[in-house]
Amino acid sequence: MPCLTTLVEIIFKLSKCSNIKTQKMKRIIPILVFALLAFSCSDVKRTTDSTEELNALRTELDSLKNLKAEAPSDANGQIATFLTFQESNAEEAMNFYVGLFENSRIIDVEKYGNDGPAKEGTILVATFELNGSKFACSDSPMKHEWDFTPGVSIWVDCKTDAEIENLYAKLSENGSVLLPLDTYSWSPKFAFVEDRFGVSWQLNLKLTN
Fold it and tell me: Can you tell me the mean pLDDT for 197-206?
């Protein structure tokens, strides 16, 4: 808009100058008016184009935000916890865990067929998520000398008393309590349990400021 202001000022000053002949004024003023109109139209077009471009960018940004919000968590991450079950109960355990934790889902399941080394219908490999953390599991076709151990456990930070108490009750049911739910020097509320499938869990109440 500075150019428009300058042209208007020039026209006004010329109209006030008595030393400029009328004929010259008649020739100059239409030219200046035309220039004024041209600048005005150009500015309007630039403003319109800029507004349309800005609206388009805003629309695209909103679309990207929506896609990000709707996108599932990364199911193809490099690292996952793998659980090997030896009692043909991998599917039962997976369904139990997915039903226990919020924002959890089964991603993929592949089962043994009738010609496989394990019982037909048991889990060859399955992947699932527990509140965004990736897990995989399998039914072993043979019995191993090793099994699950408390030396490797799953740590869970709980946000509320209700959450940790619910997990403690459900995970310890038909399992065993390695450390009861209580207040300890390292945590306001903590428990160490082994569930009925033999998997160990450390439950911690994490207070937020």
Answer: 97
